[in-house]
Design goal:
TIM Barrel; globular; alpha/beta; 5 helices; 8 strands; six-stranded mixed beta sheet
Length: 183
């Protein structure tokens, strides 16, 4: 079995989910969100075909990573392949995040996508909407997107958001110039 990737596995990401993460950048996306940060990953015939076994071996070589994040492109277009990788990642102690333009509810409609959901800890769902872009959101680009606790959502049969990521990031601004730290 093979998967189409946009690049080799990225290590040490701190912006693609909680903790220090490896990121698997899948190739192929039909959403074509205006303002997408990865339009080079849209084409389904670009990138590189990689044997799943090679991806699993690369996961074995990871050190110091809290988890793996599936991004792209849109990994859900390759749900069957991603489920195999996610299942293995879970078996070696990695938590799994996934970014998709699909909604959680739509993922429940097909067997392959439901199978992938079974191995995802956190799903960031929904297409990026440029008009709803905000830099004060945790782990998502636009206000319409949701950071979903997948195991809890499956158990409770309803979408359950990750509580700590519901509210926007707030920053405290120094009141006086002498409160800045200079290095």
């Amino acid at each position: 079995m093979q998967i189409r990737l946009a690049s080799d596995i990225q290590r040490d990401s701190i912006v693609d989910g909680e903790g220090i993460r490896a990121v698997l950048w899948t190739q192929g996306c039909a959403h074509h969100c205006r303002g997408c940060q990865n339009p080079s990953t849209w084409a389904f015939d670009k990138g590189m075909l990689v044997d799943i076994e090679d991806v699993l071996l690369a996961l074995d070589e990871l050190e110091g990573q809290d988890g793996i994040t599936f991004s792209g492109g849109d990994p859900v277009y390759q749900a069957k392949e991603c489920a195999v990788i996610a299942r293995y990642a879970k078996s070696i102690g990695l938590n799994v995040w996934c970014y998709t333009g699909f909604l959680y509810e739509d993922m429940l409609k097909t067997e392959e996508r439901r199978e992938f959901l079974n191995y995802i800890d956190v799903l960031v769902d929904g297409q990026f909407i440029l008009e709803e872009k905000s830099l004060s959101l945790y782990f998502k680009g636009s206000k319409n997107q949701r950071v979903i606790d997948v195991p809890r959502s499956i158990k409770e049969k309803q979408v359950c958001l990750v509580e700590k990521y519901k509210n926007p990031i707030t920053y405290e601004q120094p009141k006086r110039r002498d409160e800045y730290i200079y290095i």
